[in-house]
Amino acid sequence: MTPSLPLMAAVCLAAVVAGPVPAGPTPIVRTGPAHARGDDHPGPHLGPHPVSHPGPHHGIVQYTAALDAAEQRRILAYWTPGRMAGAVPIDPIDPLGLIGGLDGLLSPATRRHQAAGPVTATSGARWIAAGRRRPAAPGTVGATTGRVFLTLNGRDFVCSASSVRAANRDLVVTAAHCVKDGIGAWARNWTFVPGYDGGRRPFGAFTARRAFVTAQWSRGADDDHDVAMVAVNPVGGRHLADVVGAQPIAFNTPRGAYAYGFGFPADPPYSGRDLMYCAGPLRDDPNRQTRGQGLRCDLTAGASGGPWLSGFNPAAGVGTITSVSSFKYSNDRHTMYGPYFDDTVRRLHAIAEKA
Q1: How far does the chain reach from its first CA to its final CA, in angstroms?
Q2: Is residue 61 left, alpha or beta, with left meaning phi > 0 and alpha meaning psi from -120 to 50?
């Protein structure tokens, strides 16, 4: 599989982005993981030891995060307004196309996801649905979508994510590279801020208690498995879904559907303060390097892990999550790709919703 560039942001495009697209994207060549250790040699991560489930849970890797109240308080105290403002997209690149000070901090398995530099959007706007309020009404995309703040290899980063319907009422779906650096380090201080709006936390902040990725991601950063589920801790005794609602999720849906992709772009010309979206029909990866699908949209770093909603009702702000923002190819900045939610992702969700 040829490496790609992870998309970390979302420029709000109402439909397709105008402008020519190079024929035949040129992926960056994979160089292999930088870290020799695997899951049985834990480095910095959210909890003491990731655990591979045996039997029917085989193929899913979980790790323990902030289970006790003291650790939760420590993480919440860590994310001061200054630290949140200073966190950067997990893969920023400067205007010259050089790695913005992150070379050596992230493994090649993660660096392959780096965006190809700032993109000037042909159109863009905040997500404004009919009847939207401040804060957004629980159950709407403005409330269920949020920013993720995390520490990876000693650096503070941001991604996007969504509250997803689950039995435990505490589940978040995002990109796997927003949780674990391929076979390398796990994230620390992982915190979800739903309904993030211009720096405000209208629904509070939710720390991770357990997180789940597939073995394919944990052992090889496979783009087809760039999805993670994170069970978060309740806030004030209230579950995440009880506070902000949760979007439904579906698996093995028809390919080529029309979808909306949401997230928080943080690279210029965007600041990461506003929720943006793209919308359009999905198409298969023309390079046949992944089973994922592409959405025509200019994106800047910051929206990786943001939800893709099919059957989306713009007035109600509700749809069904069928993928998350994952990567872009190096010479096709107008298309973002997301993993296809198949039976593996169904199993990932089924295990995580019981955590």
Answers
A1: 32
A2: beta
Instruction: Provide the β-strand partners of residue 200.
Output: 197
Q: How far is CA 19 from CA 11, 36, 122, 126, 295, in A?
A: 15, 42, 8, 22, 15
Q: Which of 318, 261, 200, 195 is nearest to 7 (CA)?
A: 261
CA distance 120 to 75: 35
87 Cα distance to chain centroid? 15
Nearest Cα neighbor of 147 from 88, 188, 105 is 88
pLDDT in tens, 157-172: 999 999 999 999 999 9
Tell me which residue of 318, 327, 352 sits closest to 5, measured CA to CA: 327
**pLDDT, tens digit (0-9, with 9 covering 90-100), for 218-268:** 999 999 999 999 999 999 999 999 999 999 999 999 999 999 999 998 887
CB of 25 within 8 A of CB of 330?
yes
CB 243 within 8 A of CB 237: no
Environment class of 64 (CB within 10 Å of its CB; exposed 0-12, middle 13-18, buried 19+): middle
- The rounded distance, in Å, linking the Cα atoms of 165 and 304 is 20
pLDDT at site 28: 23
pLDDT at 141 over 90: yes
Give the three-state DSSP class for 73.
helix
